């Protein structure tokens, strides 16, 4: 029993079918609890007022925006090395979710920045690198949809994903050098003492967990859709031949 | 590899090769900017480093789809693939040819256009040096983008969407070096970072471009 068994499309379909509703249910429950708790049952932070509550959307979506790209990178590498179609389709399925997450992080950030920094947008390193990440996602999706042959498209987008990762990292440090910016440093970490206080920490953690599960659920759902589309395509091709 | 390089250079210089087109585009963009922002020379001097770098970048972008598209259409790319020269070498030769016909003329012309934008005196040498170091990276990255999109008809727009985000680090360090030069600050760090990007791109991206070419020719 190895993990590669799930690379078989049939095995993937049969084993994800019963899990999917549960993942969705837990994701929605966790996101809902985290958001409601965060929005209504936490005290307002001094200096911030109620604006701080957007963090329950901002931070998890930003987290998933980066992790979605990482997941695409891993899936692309698996496709290039082991040529499992499910892996390539999962990378394709994750990209639009990543776009949505990036856009959400940018928009909530702008809405949050307006009252606290007094501006919708600054060319701060974190903001800029997210904008660049957004452009990378757009290019990736555009390349997928521009190429007709599915295997060629999977290969080329995988190469783009790997090169893009290097350049996304490079841009991250390049803009850092360019401008120190307004965005605060990391507010959560495992080893630091100066985390945000527990009142905010626990709903934030729940909401982050909810977003992770939501991402997984959406990617599984979209991968299943892609597999079905591929099957329909194969059936139609067979029907045309006879 | 040298033969391929000479062939590409000859093709570019002779009629219809588009040599000089990028240069003319560079000139037009730089001339258009004062019409857009007004003839205030202080303002122009302040934005000149960025404008010159962005214009050079766009001019380099303009000629990218020529790198492989014509060879792909008439089949000479397939011949190249069967030749003893590895694809990596072919990709590098193409990139060098692109740089010699686009990057180098842009670098040479940039100081003259700097005068049009009232670029501050000390910045000229840094403009020249940063373009000289930075434009090879633009050519190599562009070759990779062109290799990705050869199979696509009318892939020019997609090519810019793919390549422009990859140009960001080069642009940041290049323009930063000129800006610091204009203000009389130390320019060592951005120039070294720029050189690092160029060296890394030349070392790694021909391999990625060759992989993309092989996939497209499959």
SS class of chain A: mainly alpha
Shape of chain B: elongated
The average pLDDT of chain A is: 83
Q: Please trace the helix and strand order of chain B, writing H or E for each element.
A: HHHHHHHHH
Radius of gyration of chain B from CA coordinates: 18 Å
Give the distance, in angstroms, between the N- and C-terminal Cα atoms of chain A: 39 Å
Specify the helix fraction band of chain B.
over 70%
Name the largest protein-protein interface in this structure: A-B, 26 and 29 residues
Contiguous low-pLDDT stretches of chain A (5 residues minimum) are 189-194
Low-confidence stretches of chain B: none
Proportion of residues in extended strands of chain A: under 5%
What percent of residues of chain A adopt helix (DSSP H or I)?
A: over 70%
Structural class of the secondary elements of chain B?
Answer: mainly alpha
Q: In what range is the share of β-strand residues of chain B? A: under 5%
What is the strand tally of chain A?
A: 0
* Global shape of chain A: globular
Largest sheet of chain A: none
Main sheet: strands, sense, barrel of chain B: none
CA radius of gyration of chain A = 20 Å
CA(first)-CA(last) distance of chain B? 22 Å
Tally of distinct domains of chain B: 1
Task: Describe the protein's architecture and organization.
The complex is a heterodimer of chains A (242) and B (218). Chain A contains six helices and no strands. Chain A has helices at residues 9-40, 55-82, 85-117, 125-146, 150-178, 198-241. In chain A, α3 (85-117) packs antiparallel against α4 (125-146). Chain A is globular and about 70 Å long. Chain A starts with 8 loop residues before the first helix and ends with a helix. Chain B has 218 residues and is mainly α. The A-B interface holds A 132, 135-136, 138-139, 142-143, 146-147, 152, 155-156, 159-160, 162-164, 166-168, 170-171, 174-175, 177-178 and B 144, 148-149, 151-152, 155, 158, 161-162, 164-166, 168-169, 172-173, 176, 189-190, 193, 197, 204-205, 208, 211-212, 215-216, 218.
